[in-house]
Amino acid sequence: MKKIGRKVLILALAAAVLVGMTACGGTEKKKEEKKPVKKTEQKKDDAIKTGTHETMVGTTSLKSEQIVIEPALTVKSSFDLGIAAKGSTVYTLTDGKVRQYTWKDSKMTDGKDVQLEKEYKTIELTGDGLLRLSKFMGPYIGLKNGKPAFSYDDLDYVAVHPSGKWGINYFTDGAKVTKVTFSGSTVNQKAFPFRGVHTVRRVNIDKKYIYVCGTDKDSLVFVYIYNFQGKLVKKLKDSDGSGLGSPTFMASTKKGFIALDGNMRTFDMWDKTGKWAGSAKASDLFGVDYPWISGAKLMPDGSLMVIMSQKRPEDKNKKSDQKTIEALVYKVTGFQ
């Protein structure tokens, strides 16, 4: 009987302790246990940060500085990212949608969606202050201060001269390209074939030339450079004279020509004659392992603003992040 009485006493004391714990804040301890979960959710908005990098291409020293997007901009598709900028305003194109940011102190903040009726594939900002967006089978539209400025039907992908007065309308066939001239509410087209180009992949225009990433009849990729009259003036090749990967942006500089190769993950350079000068790997110049370098914008100060996609590092404890793709932006200098 003594053993039974002792057990009853122990059970009674244990019950009293549990009641006391509940009365003294046992419920509050359960709330505190939820805090680590909230911190994990916030980390999804933290951007990949790689800082500043420098590397050499021949005798040229290239430097990149990351412009951190806050909160992080995650995307569904690695491809067709675009960027446009003027002053402290930056526009990004991801998954067919446009966002506007404020650029200050190496950060892009205050992001907000630009309202569009359709999804688009290309983005440009011209000297007339118009944000221009194009897609296959149009419409080709322009926005100024967030409001519609024009809309042209019957156009596909459009690359426009920095003045905004004319551009190149293309899809894939190098023989069916047209030159378009804008006049008020109308657009005039005339044939402007890219001779030597079988398939067109990308077109850029600066104040000097028209640049075409395209393939020849053997499916080799080159950068074809035309003057504004449609004459082929240069054909940029790889170091051994063969084809390139998949250039996504092309332009001229004081030292020659540059191209961003999405497929090879490189920053390529040529001298003024079109002779190969070398390339920088994305891992050396940007500090990322396997990005898709998707687009760029030459800035008035001679720098290049570059946008790319990068898969986040795998984390076994966070399955949701293993396939997360993030848009990253960098400012590159030294190539001029």
TrEMBL record:
Kindly state which keywords UniProt assigns to this record, in alphabetical order: Signal
Region (Disordered) residue spans? 28-48
Q: Where is the signal peptide?
A: 1-25
Stated name of the protein? Uncharacterized protein
Q: What is the lineage of its organism?
A: Bacteria, Bacillati, Bacillota, Clostridia, Eubacteriales
